[in-house]
Fold each of these.
Amino acid sequence: MNSREEIEHYKQKIKEIAGRENIIPGIHNYCDRWCERCAFVSRCTVGISESETESPDLDMKNKEFWEHLSLVFQATYEMIAEEAQETGIDLNTETTEYVQPVQRKSAAGKLAEKYGFRLLPWLKANHDLFVQKIESLLPANEQQIVSFEDAIEVIRWYSLFIAVKIHRATLPALGFDNDEIDLYDKNGSAKIALIGVSRSLEAFALLYNQLPEQEDEILGFLADLSRIQKLLKKAFPQALDFKRPGFDD
Ligand code: SF4
């Protein structure tokens, strides 16, 4: 297949997936993008696309990977442009106006960013300690090993995710014409950020018991997470009532 045929192939595939009976519309907007651990892969257009699209190894240096990704993005962009045109919006219209978006970071956003950028080097620096810990739990405590490894994975997964979602929740305006839609999106983004915070808190609580030699650092991360949680709940008091499509139905 040449590039054009591949783009058309992806467009057809995306349309076919979106038209399936059991799809939950919009489920991917307020999830944590952890598809490997998601119970809704078969009902999510993103999850299905990723599992059913033939994709070369996710090697960032792999030329084939980037070419493939570029085709998928192009197919997706063309579909959005076609839909926009049907509703009277021409995405190719030239504009001379450019309004610089104003983004002032919220206190929760700044703290979440600081937390994520402190956490990643800590995880890297303590890799050997984690391996030693797992070895010390062998062979009898299989369940404990699983919990320990899961806790590390959870913390790593949400390390920067929380800041990204807070950033989205605190954007000054998302360009929607309707304030209600805007608020809906902010609450949804704040809710998934809060979910990431609580899961990270729980995971750190487990590590606190397992890694006494890292007590001070872990307490520091727990304190950051608790503060982010408080700030977010204060800024988005309705976030926890938000019903995430699929997950909270
Ligand atoms: S809803 Fe589940 S399958 Fe879909 S993008 Fe999110 S984590 Fe992945």
Amino acid sequence: MFNPYGLFAMPTLETPRLILRRIAMCDAKDIFSYSCDEEVARHVLWSAQKDISEARAYCRDLQRRYRRDEPSSWGIIEKKTGHLVGTIGYMNYSEENASVEVGYSLAHWLWNGGYMTEALARVIDYTFDAMDINRIEAQHELTNPASGRVMEKCGMRREGVLRQRLYNKGKFVDVALYAILKGDPRPLTSAKEPS
Ligand SMILES: CC(C)(COP(=O)(O)OP(=O)(O)OC[C@H]1O[C@@H](n2cnc3c(N)ncnc32)[C@H](O)[C@@H]1OP(=O)(O)O)[C@@H](O)C(=O)NCCC(=O)NCCS
């Protein structure tokens, strides 16, 4: 059952072109349609899905996370089509440090249209305005500069390169670490959470 009081309540959020909402089992088809693409999976820690059952398993895992108030993801819905076209969410939450990491992915056919920047800016606003979080981190493989650009446009600062930090798809990869603090400027702030 949805826990409206937990830290990871994941309420529905809106941007000019997108709705961010909790993922339901009926989203599996949309998720599979872009997550089966090797290009989308190239720089993330999951592999391209081979069968829709993998998308269903992902949706089931998220239902468990929502129920247990664990770090989880929103589905990104394109208002124009009503389809779920990506995800954005949390991982690596540290209560003692009031920090959390964000990660995201988007259907290939929508890249470079500004969607993920729009989604991340909204999630940063929500995280700082409605959650007890002081630091949001994100990391990307050096060979995936578009993701770093999204972070930069949202006011995240590049803090350094962590050499061979991840083992992904058969090799060790260097990643750039980005972060934004609650007190940092937010160049794309739009809607504010009610106080
Ligand atoms: C990374 C990703 C989320 C970006 O989403 P998006 O909606 O295309 O991002 P935006 O359109 O908001 O911004 C992309 C920016 O990167 C820039 N960019 C694209 N390719 C680039 C490249 N090879 N080098 C440098 N910048 C690049 C774009 O020009 C744009 O910047 P601009 O607005 O200054 O022109 C999307 O490509 C994706 O889902 N990739 C697969 C999954 C993934 O890699 N997730 C992130 C893991 S860290």
